[in-house]
Design goal:
151 residues, mainly alpha, two-stranded antiparallel sheet
Length: 151
């Protein structure tokens, strides 16, 4: 069984841990699933998910639980930074321009956390005409992760 890259998992975890407290809350999990899938989640679906993934029954998902979940239940090809990037890459050309970013913000802005938004905002503030590539997105996500101070 193939596993996800540990570095990518840490980056993903940090992007979904919106308040940077070192765990992913139920609200953050719901936001994650709805952002990636584009479909709302019921309280019943969330409760069933937490029953399986929250092995220490704390009510939150730790980095360890996130890693187990990703490696056990999510095929390596289906979820990751690439999928989050593709949420913004509306045209599918491998780059996100400011127009695509603004379109996604109008449609899903409330579902995204500030770190996810800031990665693109920072690039567009540097150059409004730029196109953010996947590699630039990963580099920026890495910077976010490096600057986190977990409890």
């Amino acid at each position: 069984m193939s596993t996800h890259d540990a570095h990518e998992l840490k980056l993903l975890f940090s992007l979904f841990d919106a308040n940077h407290d070192g765990s992913i809350s139920q609200d953050e999990i719901k936001q994650l699933v709805e952002t990636v899938s584009g479909h709302p989640w019921t309280e019943e679906q969330l409760a069933a998910f937490m029953k399986v993934v929250d092995t220490d029954t704390s009510g939150d998902i730790t980095m360890e639980e996130f890693t187990v979940m990703m490696n056990r239940y999510i095929p390596t090809s289906t979820l990751g930074l690439r999928d989050l990037f593709n949420t913004f890459d509306v045209s599918g050309d491998g780059c996100v321009d400011k127009q695509e970013f603004e379109q996604v913000m109008k449609e899903k802005g409330k579902e995204l956390n500030q770190d996810q938004i800031n990665i693109f905002n920072k690039k567009f503030q540097e150059d409004a005409n730029c196109k953010v590539t996947y590699e630039q997105f990963v580099d920026s996500a890495t910077e976010v992760y490096k600057n986190l101070k977990f409890n």
